[in-house]
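Possible race condition, two jobs.
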Amino acid sequence: MKKTERSDNMRLRNVKNSEERLEQSPYFIKDPKEYKGKWNTLFQNQNPIHLEIGTGKGNFLITMAKLYPKINFIGMEKFSSVLLRAIEKVQSEKLSNLYFICEDAKEIQDFFKQEISTIYLNFSDPWPKKRHEKRRLTSKEHLSLYENIFKDEKRIVQKTDNIGLFAYSLEQLSKSGYILNKVSLDLKNEKIPNVLTEYEEKFSQLGFKINYVEAIKDKDS
């Protein structure tokens, strides 16, 4: 199933003038390095900041921003043509608590410093081959990168339909000192508040089970 999603992303990378079109939107931050350590000055408040890595076409984060106006949201997406879809969706909205950046997660420490309250990892690429392990967003390498961007308590929320990636993530989170606060192998049938992503909505309707974990780590751990 992931092959379908990734091929779609590859097709979208070729959208003409996607970078120029992104820069025309007030929801897009061209140079996020300028706000490292001071994102609250952009939002003009001291509300918590939640970051989604791999925001895709934006349904999840746009809905979250509407539901939780007292939380600030940032969507990070590597591919400009994919992010453009999210920008197009949000253009008609009036949201002061949402921005997007087009960057790679491996550079995340260049953009944030001790200011993120929650990281969302929704349906990340599982990178199933062993030689690609470091690319997984829950690899020890990525978890190490996240350490310095959290403000207080460290909170990672992951959703995936890939049971192999999920099992790997639970192991790596535990090894990194996270407490697995909530774990589900069938999120649809749990009493856990949930905002669907585009991918999740499509495959939940087809009967695929969604795996979910909320992992928490103390500030000084």
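Job #2 (started ~2 s after job #1):
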Amino acid sequence: MRTPKECIALIKEYDFAIQKKFGQNFLIDSNIIEGIIEAAEITKDDCVLEIGPGMGAMTGYLLESARKVIAVEVDRMLIPILQDTLNGYDNLVLINDDILKVDIASLIERENDGRPIKVVANLPYYITTPIIMELLEREEKITSITVMVQKEVAQRMQEGPGSKSYGALSLAVQYYAKAGIVLNVSKNCFLPKPDVDSAVIKLDIYEPCERPVKTENPEQMFALIRAAFNQRRKTLLNSLGNAQELNYTKEQIAEALARMGKSETIRGEALSLPEFAELSDILSQQ
């Protein structure tokens, strides 16, 4: 296993140019890496999907701890470095692709006989939310997601109604998983150094019967949530009534809000996850 310092040396050896378009900030602090592995609770029974292995600093630790590691890296220039860094491991599957274009369910079926996996990642800041949402929607194939993200984003995942950072991501995470920040990480732990600090958050995926709310139509509930926060400065009556993906009149929405004891001037950021579920069910009955 190579140390983070040795991985830094590979940058010079391979004359690698760090790509801003991929949001590349390589984690080089071995203490943080060990903390992530511990938080993820990786065992020899586990198959792990690592998104964005980068220089392979954390991948080596994962390979030592897990039965199999599937590493998906979008930057083809990193593949030769990873092959060198991880030479000698027979439990690695290295894939050069964009994780948002990978059929995760098929990948899990092929590489782990369809059994659930764990996800570990140091996510690029600019596509954190799309990746998290894609993973959450595959919850039946994933038991936990332990990811390094921008500190502000990690906090957003745990926010409740009334906060400025409360939004669709907060509600999705809280519906699918129990979330907890396990590490705060200084910008000094990366190469190159990012502008902001980071945090490691672990999402333990709920079994469907364990979810904190029950709703007749989860797809509609999330359509309501998206519409509410796409125009968060507007009232729910207007944001939902103007949403093309919804088929409810403002009169129906006003009636549903009245049944909940809510004002027509209320905004989406004031509703909790159980209240969005209730609103969805009332509208479905209409």
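The radius of gyration is 21 Å.
Logs attached separately.
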